[in-house]
Amino acid sequence: xxxxxxxxxxxxxxxxxxxxxxxxxxxxRLAEALGAPLEAVMCWEDPLLYESxxxxxxxxxxxxxxxxxxSTLEEVFGEQRPANLTTRLLRGQPAARLIEESEEARxxxxxxxxxxxVLGMILGSVSSALVSHAKCPVLVVRH
Length: 143
What we know:
Family: Belongs to the universal stress protein A family.
Number of domains: 1
Radius of gyration: 15 Å
Largest sheet: 5 strands, parallel
Shape: globular
Domain UspA: 9-142
Protein name: Universal stress protein UspA
Number of strands: 7
Oligomer: single chain
InterPro entries: Rossmann-like_a/b/a_fold (IPR014729), Universal_stress_UspA (IPR006015), UspA (IPR006016)
Organism: Kocuria rosea subsp. polaris
Order of helices and strands: EHEEEHEHEHE
Helix content: 25-40%
Strand content: 15-25%
Number of helices: 4
């Protein structure tokens, strides 16, 4: 594992969950304290295929993800988004894409649990994968 970038950006994984909203708030505090740029990232995956039948049009799914991303940012920041905030909507599996992002990041910030199913999990699958495989420090925010 390479050395984390001391001048890189703080990357926050967003999925619309309460935990990711808490991670966004913490990411803002960290970025301000460190004088670092802040990037909010949401990932979306292609909908499942069943025997060559596409259940949902990928473009429709992307638009839905974009709407969720915007509504999450609106809920957390209102009209006053941080000046140092950039956003990106990435296609692909969240853990894999965030691990890629970690290569150039100063730190990843994620919620403890996302929108996935099993109640009572101590650590969500994405946050667990990031803690194990990210190339930079990872802050897991408890909601």
